[in-house]
Amino acid sequence: MNLIEDISESTGIGLGVHTCIYPDAAGFACADGQKDIAAFFDRPDLTAKTQVLMAFRADWVGKNATASLEANWAEGGTLRIVRLTKAKETNKFHLEGTKGNKIDWEMVPMAEYLVYTGQIPGDSPRTLSGLDAVVHHPGNRYSALIIRMCSAAVILDRQNWEPVCCLHNPEGSPGNLPVRKVSSDPDTWEVKFDDLKCVGHEAGFTPDGKFFTMMNNIKQNNMAIFDTSDWDPRNWKKITYVKDSSWVGDFPSPFHLCFSMDGSKMFVSVLYPKPANSGSCVVDTKRWMIIKKFQNIGPDCQTMAVTYDGKYVLQIFSGFQRLSSGLFIYTQDTLEPVGYLPNFGGHHDCVVVPSKIEDLRNSRCTTL
Description:
Blueprint: H1 7-11, E1 18-21, E2 27-32, E3 37-42, E4 52-62, H2 69-74, E5 77-83, H3 112-116, E6 131-136, E7 142-147, E8 152-157, E9 162-168, E10 176-178, E11 180-184, E12 187-193, E13 199-205, E14 211-217, E15 222-227, E16 237-242, E17 253-259, E18 265-271, E19 278-284, E20 289-298, E21 301-306, E22 312-317, E23 326-331, E24 337-342
Antiparallel strand pairs: 1-2, 2-3, 3-4, 4-5, 5-12, 6-7, 7-8, 8-9, 9-10, 11-12, 13-14, 14-15, 15-16, 17-18, 18-19, 19-20, 21-22, 22-23, 23-24
């Protein structure tokens, strides 16, 4: 492998955790949940340097500044989104390496609990929103900024680079919150939350763009389903939840997801705490009901991917413990187990690299 470009050095903005390419493959987005920053990049040919198209920071402002850490989020507050600009002197951002980190290490799955119980220190944990991912609507206009601490997704219009609305996932909370612009120097928007009933994690759009889902975790364990078929995201509505009778308490938790090639099924990894093995389940997207479970697969089931010939689902296991890791494989249509591909290096993410643009709708583009 040869390093083509250090984008952090080129742009002055270094982000970790999640990278998702655009549905037309013309650019990509990265986010970093330690810095609460998401940036959108072009995709130049090999003779040019990558450029930042736009960048945003998200900050949480709790209603009660003197409240406990847990109450800082639970009692509600304001999500503030600020457009970032380059320094005129250098034509770069000032966010390389660990610069801008609010907490000292990345939130592992369900580590939102560690933040609001004071177990992850840092320069500014109270302002943490957990903006650590971006997924794209397959129509290639809208992107969703995933906000873990709020279990929310801010919908961004990439035609004018402005937030449109905010999808709020917890059961018992309003589903579509307004975004209000409060300043133009710098451009700043705010979303008001009456309370935060739970945190969230991974999310995604169906391949046809008609639905969006995001996991609610820790205090709620379910998956909110939004109808996103309307051309205006402000009309997207929360319509139901994917639930399971065993998803109670902190664990087991729905964790990662992807869709079959025809969109008729959603595949979900189900995380159990160590030393228990995790599993995978299959959801019928017409009824949003679980129709199949694969249990006791291996420790720490994480992301999954589908093969673009419509034959197989690849389920990663062991991203953290590294005692037993590999791929569990089952068929997309008949949902029969095929077997294991062991790998002893440990895993976290999994994707089948698309060979054509059409396959991006099922790749790590619309889902996490």
